[in-house]
Every structure is written in structure tokens, then in C-alpha cells.
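thought: fold this chain, then report.
action: predict
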Amino acid sequence: MSQNRSISTTAAKAARHAVRAHETATATAEVIAARVEMGRLAMTNPSLEHAGEATTMVAEKMLAFSEAGAAMAGKSGEMAASQMRFAMDETTHSGAAMAKLASCKSPVDLALAQGQLAMNFFSRSMAHGLSMGAMAVRAGEVGLKPIHRTVTANAKRLKTS
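observation:
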């Protein structure tokens, strides 16, 4: 995949993630408002219905956040592995760079080699940075998914209660 396509794909995913984050925030406000009202009513008229919602709410939150944590842990492992590969690759590149610099015959050759090596490094660093950004977007997506699913379902359910 070309770098431009990769950037536009990541941007599209980031935009979809932003929409889901907004939906999550909106649904969260609706759920909190509904549950505060339920709590107020439970204080004046306790019932099993209110206790059931409180129990459901705790279990749902624990499940959603456990799923999100597990998903984020997997993605953070991928990101750490990518960072390690980049560091190891750069170690290899630095050895090759030293050999190239050592073989220069004149100050002009040295200056040209240094310029090329710097350009190569900045190119690799930019590509790696974009890759890490794409991984961060994916980590955000998988982390938000169970929370979004749970809170939007709660908002729908509480509207009909």
C-alpha cells in the first residue's frame, strides 16, 4: 500500500473513531442522567427494579472495561514490538553508516555521505512515526469498541424503561 493511501486510510479511521467517541460521550451523558433520576426515585421509593439496574450497571461496566483493557494490552504489545524492531533496525543502519563514512576518500565524499545518511534516517523515522500513529488509532478503536457498544446499548435500553 502506498504511503499516501496508508495516511488517508488512517485519517478515515481516525475520523470514524472520533464519531464513535462523540457517540460514546453523548450516550454516557444520557445514561448518567437516567441513572441519577433512577437513584433519586430509589431514595424515595426503593424497589427491586432499581436494585436490578444497579447490579446490571456494575456488571456491564466491569465487562466493558475488562474487554477494553485486554484489547488495549494487545495493541500496546504490538506497538512495543514495533518500537523494538525500529530500534534494532536502526542499530543495523548505524553500523552500515559507520562503514560508509569510514570509506569516504575526501571531505566532499564525507559531506555527501552524511547528507544521504541523514535523509535516509529522517525518511525511516517519518515512516515509523506514521506507522505508530496508525497503531495508536487502532488501539483507540479496539479500546473504545466495548465501551461504545455497552454505553449506547444502555442509553437505548434506559430510554425505553
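thought: worth noting. The two ends are 48 Å apart (CA to CA).
final: C-alpha cells above.
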